[in-house]
Write a structure and sequence with these properties.
TIM Barrel; single chain; 10 strands; two-stranded antiparallel ribbon; globular; eight-stranded parallel β-barrel
Length: 357
Amino acid sequence: MRYRVLGGTGIEVSAYCLGTMMFGAVGNPDHDDCARIIHTALDQGINFVDTADMYSAGESEEIVGKALESRGSRDDVVLATKVHFPMGEGRNRRGNSRRWIVREVEESLRRLRTDWIDLYQVHRPDHTTDIEETLSALGDLVTAGKIRAFGCSTFPAEEIVEAYHVAERRGLPRFRTEQPPYSLLARGIEREVLPTVRRLGMGALTWSPLASGFLTGRYRKGRPIDLGTGRAALTPARFDPALPVNAAKLDAVEELTALADDLGRTLPELALAFPLAHPAVTSVIIGPRTGEQLAAALKGADLTLDDAALDRIDAIVPPGTNVYHPDGVWQPPALTDPALRRRPATDRAARELLPRQ
């Protein structure tokens, strides 16, 4: 296992980060089995574990907390979690406000059975909260010893830059990391996000390296895809080969599989090695649901792609392009809320009464 320094913090983390989104009700509900996966990952040299408060409504954090407590290895693990998404009923049980962050960090600490969190991440932007409010609250948590560092997740480049300049002007601690989606089929962050992260000295922890399952080797061109089972049953539109976007994925998968074969590797091993070839990326998040999936991922830990392999990848999926738009990526509020891009009707009516020039 290789190790890298996390965003100028001096904290060394493994190049593979164990993501735990699939631990709990939405993935693997067997707590003991999940604990075995965590322990195996630690035995194999992974020292970085990422979770979030909203994963299975807190259950993932509880699983991680119990597994680390039973192992007695908290001091050797770099533990990351996130805040932002709704947790239960209530208007103020979500978002990036000081009120919610200060409250929810205590809940995460309780579920994780620890006194501190190494990396506390803001899961998505929040246009209702001034970024200075968020940075100030997170800085106070660092001072209080509740967290060691903080970062953001799935922020667009302009939001990252704004947060950096606000921190600089106000003398506040700044985001040390960003967690974006990045894979062989989704390279859009190479245009702005990764160059911005690198320029600002931040670390990047990338998620969805297997492109929501398309880079596992399970889905191939010309083979039937059962849209009624597994991941396909949850989001059929993501896998239906009749849709042009999915046909494009399958075409790229065929070419990438041929490249992996030429390297004597599997497609998943190629997919996990690819993000780590970018100089801005610190760690790639793997999210196994089973021990077998973890073992398959770890087989590629020693793979480093040379220029010839990266040139072939560039020819299949050009740099900075997305074969598909990753799910879960933040959208500007004005694209999802019509009221934010339209003048109120009363305002428009009033303007109609003004004399025309």
